[in-house]
Amino acid sequence: MPQAEVPQALPEAPARGNRARKVLLAEDCPQSALLFHSGFAKPPPWKVGWMPDGKDVLSFLLKHPPYEDAWTPTLIVLNINLPHVDRLTLLREIKSAPALAPIPIVTWSVSQNREEIAFSYQHGAAAFVSKPVWEIRRQITAIRAFWEEAQPPLESQLDTIFLVSEVTD
User: Fold this and answer.
1) Is the pLDDT of residue 156 over 50?
2) Separation of alpha carbons 101 and 166, rounded Å
3) Residue 130: enclosing H or E segment and its boundaries?
4) Is the torsion defined by CA of 62, 121, 12, 50 positive or negative?
5) Which of 90, 135, 157, 162 is deepest in the core (most CB within 10 A)?
6) Which domain holds residue 146?
7) Residue among 113, 115, 111, 164 at smallest CA distance from 140
8) What sections of 2-160 are H helices per DSSP?
9) Would 69 be classed as within a structural domain?
10) Quick one: angle between helices 54-61 and 87-96, nearest 10?
């Protein structure tokens, strides 16, 4: 697989308060990434970055070479099955870095296995979204809508768990 480039971004989204909306998608399926990008490109657009490899995701977030000047997302959407770095390592590394720990992580997967869901929450995910192929556009819309309305958590709320299990009309 070719090495990922620094994620391309859309114009900055209008900030809510002083928070610009920036999402990093960690997803190894280009088709899912394209659908995700189109869902977050709708006005007001978010700054969107895509990385298909777990090793690059960590380097980008931790600003290791070649990503020393990388931007910091306000939301991370993490496919649980990325190449090169397993999700436990990703969750642990992100949540143990003081600058990254407050960033909400939405884990998403085609799996609806309860153990997968519980594992994600136990290791720091703020939400788990099942992405059945036939509803992926609706799931992406739901992720965006939820996090546009979400307020940054207070320190006392960091253990709160949000579950997005099914989207209905």
Assistant:
1) no
2) 26
3) strand 127-130
4) positive
5) 90
6) 29-151
7) 164
8) 30-41, 54-61, 87-96, 114-122, 136-149
9) yes
10) 0
Place of tokens 């610009």: 20
Q: Which residue has the higher pLDDT, 38 or 20?
A: 38
Please give the Cα distance from 42 to 45 (Å, whole number): 5
Candidates 112, 126, 30, 2; CA nearest to 76 is: 126
Q: Are strands 105-109 and 75-79 parallel, antiparallel or unpaired?
A: parallel
Phi and psi at 33, nearest 5°, equal -65, -40
Is 3 a residue whose pLDDT tops 70? no
Residue 156 forms part of a structural domain: no
| Cβ atoms 25, 36 nearer than 8 A | yes
Q: Which residue has the tokens 């939301």?
A: 75
The CATH code of the domain that includes 36 is 3.40.50.2300
pTM metric for this prediction: 0.75
Pairing type for strands 47-51 and 22-26 reads: parallel
For 127, the 3-state DSSP assignment is strand
Residue 164 lies in a domain: no
Mean pLDDT of 89-107: 94
